[in-house]
Amino acid sequence: MNLNDKIQAINDSFSKDKKNFKSNSIKFDDFKNKYLGRKGLLSELYPLLNSVSDSDKPECGKKINSIKNVITKEIHSLGNNLSDLSNNALNIDSSMPGTEKFSGSIHPLTKIIDEIKSIFNRIGFSTIYGPEVDTDYYNFEALNIPKDHPARDMQDTFYINKETLLRTHTSSSQIHFMEKNQPPLRIISPGRVYRNEDISVRSYCLFHQIEGLYIDKNVKFSDLKGTLDYFAKSLFGENVKTRFRPSYFPFTEPSAEMDVSCIFCKSKGCNICKQSGWIEILGCGMVDPEVFKFVDYDVDIWSGFAFGIGIERIAMLKYGVKDIRIFYNGDIQFLEQIKL
Ligand code: DAH
Q1: In the beta sheet, which residues pair with residue 339?
Q2: Is the CB of 283 within 6 Å of ligand 1?
Q3: Most-buried pick from 100, 143, 175, 204 (CB within 10 A)?
Q4: How far is the CA of 251 from the centre of ligand 1 (A)?
């Protein structure tokens, strides 16, 4: 076949294939390769130049370049328009499953902390943060827990040196804040705390608390009860009941622990509430005047209450989790399950 015939044949074939492509009987890639591929029809033209006389070569070269340019341009513009064509023209099988996209989520503990923060922020508590690496003074001494006080045994401490430690509770934030601010005040202070405890389903070497502190004139135990009852109802629902049991903390007097009526069995008695109908969720009390002395507050003017909420405990109740360690091992299946 001479060059002119070949060019004519390619032109005819290209017109046909354009129609085939538009009616979807040829795929774009096959169409493109048939003409522009390394072994495509256009590549067959150049060897034909060898059989042309030298005087005709420039003219023939031009013809080849011209058809090549036209076809290349047209194919590219058909390619660019692909997205405008229907799915059918793209040869997409719309019954195929899509590509799954994974997205991260807020950690359940962060979610609970955020929720509790907003409950207290609504009634005028602001959020403050204290240091996780602290001194013996802030973690114990100024909270009325002197060096040889037996209450130190309640909290196995990670010491960094004789004076420096990882805080064992967020109560230390109270002292930092009171040192720098004058009453009246209403704060909560969330964060990590650390204890050198055996790791088990119920305890971990690190966990989270939210500390609360309310100081004003004439603050009474009834203010504490009202505030914490509001908190429990906001978190667990209007029907939840609260009760206060006497307890002991060196920095509050009197001290109490607050229970909520069991949200799982509606107080009938189940495994989770150990058949008692009640679940303990926090420690609280009226701030001991001894603590005020450390921060130079006038004990005759100011009184207040404090509380400490264990976040993991609440998260375990809310999400029905039986092993505290699952919050820390980054188990994707667990996180996906409770992603909201
Ligand atoms: N700091 C206590 C603990 O870690 C919790 C606590 C109890 C905090 C009573 C308080 C409080 O502020 O009043 O066990």
Answers
A1: none
A2: yes
A3: 143
A4: 8
Atom number, ligand 1, closest to the C-alpha of residue 169? 4
The CA distance from 199 to 121, in Å, is 33
The answer to whether the beta carbons of residues 287 and 252 sit under 8 Å apart is yes
Pairing relation of β-strands 164-166 and 242-249? Answer: unpaired
* Residue carrying the six token digits 């069995």: 265
Please work out whether the CB of residue 214 comes within 6 Å of at least one atom of ligand 1: no
Reading phi first (left if > 0) and then psi (alpha if -120 to 50, else beta), residue 207 is in: beta
Query: What tokens were used for 201?
Result: 């389903």
Best probe residue, ligand 1, of 193, 215, 284 (max atoms within 8 Å of C-beta): 284
* pTM score, whole prediction: 0.73
Indicate the pLDDT class of residue 49, thresholds 50, 70 and 90: confident
Burial 117-153 (b: 16+ CB within 10 A, else e): bebbeeeebeebebeeebbbebbbebbbbeeeeeebe
Q: What is the pLDDT of residues 177-219, one digit of tens each?
A: 999 999 999 999 999 999 999 999 989 999 999 999 999 999 9
> Which residues are registered as beta bridge partners of 283?
257, 308
CB neighbour list of residue 328: distance below 8 Å, 6 or more residues apart: 204, 206
What is the DSSP-derived secondary structure letter of residue 277?
S
Average the pLDDT over each of 127-131, 175-179, 262-266, 335-339 and give the range with the smallest value: 335-339
β-pairing verdict for 242-249 and 252-261: antiparallel
Integer angstrom CA distances of residue 321 from 32, 262, 266, 330? 58, 15, 18, 14
